Structures are given as structure tokens and as C-alpha cells.
Amino acid sequence: MPTSAHGCCSPAQALRPPRTGRGFTLIEVLVVCAIMATALAFAALKLDVTDGARLKAAAEDLAGRLENARDEAVIRGQAIAFSSDGQGYQFWLADRNRNAWVVLADSAHLVSGRFAGGAQLQSVVINGSPRPVGERITFSPVGLSDAFSLSLSIGPARLEILADALGRIEIRHAL
């Protein structure tokens, strides 16, 4: 007559040590690696899109200000100029009495400032000729200007703001 109940294990299983610290299986480790790689890929893509979006916003902001400068020159009947030090920009008004350029200080739309999003002006081309970054671009009182191109960048991303002699302004990807 048996004196004890049967155990839950066979005699071979009873001799093995208990499995307390098993660790992770190879499948679990691979799944976690795949999830992390996907997350990193999306994060890197997000950073690139962010730089491009910031540059586009900066280019659109500057293009709008340049259009305002052209319009302001026509409204005032005085030449207005734009210049940049590469990091920011300034608008100038032609002072006929002193025969000089003075900083435009009485316009709500044409105030000096830094380029949006940390953009930088890389090059200035006026009438097809490369010019120093600080050279003024002039808008005449009749709405005309020299054809010009401004190249803006944030990191490796580049955009160009192009204007023709009639003052039409557009933004393109730099070549």
C-alpha cells in the first residue's frame, strides 16, 4: 500500500536544478532590437524633416519680407534696400536729403532681425554675378529691382530665393 501521493515530476525531472534565472530567448532579443531600430529610423527621419521644414519656413518668411520691401518702395515712392550679414537682415531707406542709406525704422513689416529657424545666408547673386553677402539689394520706387538669388541653408539643407527684375519672387531647392 502506498504511503504517499505521487509527485508532479518524474524521477528524472526531480533531479534537475530548478529554473529560476532563465534570461531572454533569442527571439525576444531580436524583437526588441527590431523595435529599437524602427524607432531610431523614425527619429532620424523626423530630424531631417524638421531641418527642411525650418528652412522652408525661414525662406517663406524672408520671401514675404522681400515682397513687402518691394511694395513699401512703391507706396513710399522711395528706394528700399535689403542687406544681410549672413545670420540676420536689415532694411534700408534711401534718404534723398543726405544722399545715403538709413536704417528703416518706421515700418512694422520691415524690421531688422535674425533669420527664422537658425537659417544662414550662404550666397548672394545679383544679375547673374556673385556678390558679397553684405551687399544691398535695392527695390526701386517703380517696383523694379535687379534680378537676384539668395541661398539659405540650415545644415546640409539649402533653398534659393529667386527674384526677377519685375520683383516676382519664388523659392526653389538649391542645385
| Average pLDDT taken over every residue | 86
Give the full name of the CATH homologous superfamily: minor pseudopilin epsh domain
N-end to C-end Cα span: 95 Å
The number of helical runs is 2
Structure, briefly:
The protein is α+β, with helices and mostly antiparallel strands and 175 residues long.
Using brief descriptors, characterize the structure shown.
175 residues; alpha+beta; minor pseudopilin epsh fold; 10 strands; 32% helix; rod-shaped; cell inner membrane; Pilin-like
Question: What does this protein structure show overall?
Answer:
This protein is of the alpha+beta class and 175 residues long. The protein has helices at residues 11-15, 26-76, and strands at 80-84, 88-95, 100-103, 113-114, 120-126, 129-131, 137-139, 148-154, 157-163, 169-173. The protein is rod-shaped, with a radius of gyration of 33 Å. It has one domain: 3-Layer(bab) Sandwich (minor pseudopilin epsh fold), CATH 3.55.40.10. Strand 2 and strand 3 form a beta hairpin. Strands 1, 2, 3, 4 and 7 form a five-stranded antiparallel β-sheet that branches.
Write the layout of secondary structure elements.
Elements: H1 11-15, H2 26-76, E1 80-84, E2 88-95, E3 100-103, E4 113-114, E5 120-126, E6 129-131, E7 137-139, E8 148-154, E9 157-163, E10 169-173
Antiparallel strand pairs: 1-2, 1-7, 2-3, 2-4, 5-6, 5-8, 8-9, 9-10
